[in-house]
Fold this sequence. Notes:
This protein is an all-alpha fold. Helix content is 75%, strand content 0%. The N and C termini lie close together (6 Å).
Amino acid sequence: MTTSSAQSEQMTERNPWPALWALVIGFFMILVDSTIVAVANPAIMSDLQTDINSVVWVTSAYLLAYAVPLLVTGRLGDRFGPKNVYLIGLVLFTGASLWCGLSGTVTMLIVARVFQGFGAALMTPHTMAVITRTFPPDRRGTAMGLWGAVAGVATLVGPLAGGLLVDSLGWEWIFIVNVPVGVIAFVMAWRLVPALPTNSHKFDIPGVILSAAGMFFLVFGIQEGSTYDWSGLVLASIAAGLVILGVFVWYQSWNRNEPLVPLSLFSDRNFSLANLAIMSMGFAITAMVLPLMFYTQAVRGMSPTTSALLLIPMAVLTGVFAPFVGRLVDRTHPRYIAGTGFLLFAIALGWLATVMTPQAQVWELLLPIGLIGFANACIWSPLAATATHNLEPQKAGAGAGVYNTTRQAGAVLGSAAMGALITARLAAGGVDGGGEESTIRQLPEFVREPFSTAMSESMWLPAAVLVVGFVCAVCFARPVRATHPARTDPNQAADPNQEADPDQEADTNQERALQD
């Protein structure tokens, strides 16, 4: 038996669930870190004496450093093993978290967040890659259901833990708390995640440079537009970003060796649509939290903890329904589930925008927030399962890297666009977006109405972007289901010396006999 066949048989006999549980702890920490910062933004502004635009860069710098390397970090997992790359990223993320907590200026915090984002980029693709390479296509929906449930729980734990930590210990502890969690995640991943077979890869350095430069110029131009009054320099930055990204796409099609983004992945209709849909989802999730937290704390006078408690219905409903949705994904056309989720999410954000007034009752806010939670459960696992269903095992890392990159690119654009929109709407309402505590955390009565209006108007932007995701979802094709889910070795195709089994319905014992 060849080495590759032996590795495949070993993976067949191994229960993939313990490895997945170990990996989702790190994934959970990344998601918590993304949501926990939004609750602390007013406190960071006050303590570091900065403005809204600068505090948005605390998030945008993280997301930008997170999004750009994802295209190559997925390949690193294919080349050096997803376990090894994941552990390196976990160490970097945990160390950068401590650095964030010790930062004394907003500039230092932004720099530390860049390193934290790069660590997250090393970790993220390999959760999905391990699912793709260890679970058969027709059982991935259940695994993705766990992935979606983790996202739902993180949505709850992040803001709630952030509120409690900011109120009791200070905003620094939203980062320091990652240190013990990171140590636990490292030990579990070291012990439980298997060493998967690797493939030789070349690395597209020009592609990395072009994608990084294009994203930076685009995000900088969008986010700084209001600060520089949409001057020629800002417009030139946006134009340069779009041109460079266009050159990047052309270069990927021209590169015949091993491009950073294998455009052949997009020949699969569902993969292409799922990537566009998850970009709109990343945009909406990141964009909606910022105005909501500023509204609850600056307009309603809620503490960070109380503001976070408003998100409990969203997180609970996502966590409860995601596993059930994951099981449905394996048996139901994805357009029905994901399309419903996108439509409900857009409706919920529009609903929330209409009730974000200084006089609104708390229950009026909780109803649309709860609907967002149910909608999220209908989106995460169907999109991920649909995107990865037809991926070949040797392309799992590249596919996961592309998918997570588009999600994070959407998040970067959502953060930048929302920062620019909030600044513009505040200026239109005659409200200063400075960093003084009296301006943000203790708004005078006469300022609350225009500030509230600016936040509610900003909420319509992610609602509009979700319509794109809805259109993509309803255009999904039904995935081709295997006749038997008993075929449990996803790595057979990676062995060039192994003959293909002509009978796809043969049971596992027959396959092993043929291999021997």
